[in-house]
Amino acid sequence: MKIILTHEVSGLGTAGDVVDVKDGYARNYLVPRGFAIRWTKGGEKDVEQIRRGRKIREIATIEQANEVKGQLEGVKVKLAVRAGEAGRLFGSVTPADIASAVKAAGGPDVDKRRVEIGSPIKTLGAHQVSVRLHAEVTAKVGVEVVAA
User: Fold this and answer.
1) What is the C-alpha separation between 7 and 95, in angstroms, rounded?
2) Rounded Cα gap, residues 39 and 3, in angstroms
3) What is the maximum alpha-carbon separation in the chain?
4) How many Cα neighbours within 13 Å face the side chain of 17?
5) 3-state DSSP assignment of residue 33
6) Among the residues of 43-142, which ranges form H helices?
7) pTM score > 0.70 for this model?
8) Do the Cβ atoms of 30 and 21 come closer than 8 Å?
9) How far is CA 70 from CA 38, 77, 96, 114, 136, in A?
10) Tens-place pLDDT, residues 93-107
11) Helix/strand/coil percent split, the chain, to 5
12) Residues of 68-95 as b/e, b for ≥16 C-beta within 10 angstroms?
């Protein structure tokens, strides 16, 4: 099935790309989550609009990405969440929580879709997350999760 990506999907492509995937993957995962729309001749016009929006948000050069990486890695991020007595969280920390905590700590704006959490953060303490800034540049950000 041919689809148009509306968001970046790891291993598949970036927003505005027209890709061919298996029917079930598109029907059950990509389209319901809003990562893609079905390809049509009319939808082909949307591709240019999606690409323009991507260019505005995207970090254009590796130099810019390295500059933002330096800013991110120098920021001390503390995230206050509700936790039980044993240090387990009520829920888990989301990429949106991390993006807003980075901004609150004085760091640069980070798109929540670029924050990658290796395994779900469900305990208090120090954790590492990755932020994909460019195709070749990834920043490691230390997040201190504390009880609220």
Assistant:
1) 15
2) 5
3) 56
4) 13
5) coil
6) 44-57, 62-73, 95-104
7) no
8) yes
9) 39, 14, 21, 16, 15
10) 999 999 999 999 988
11) 30, 30, 35
12) bbeebeebebebebebeeeeebeeebeb
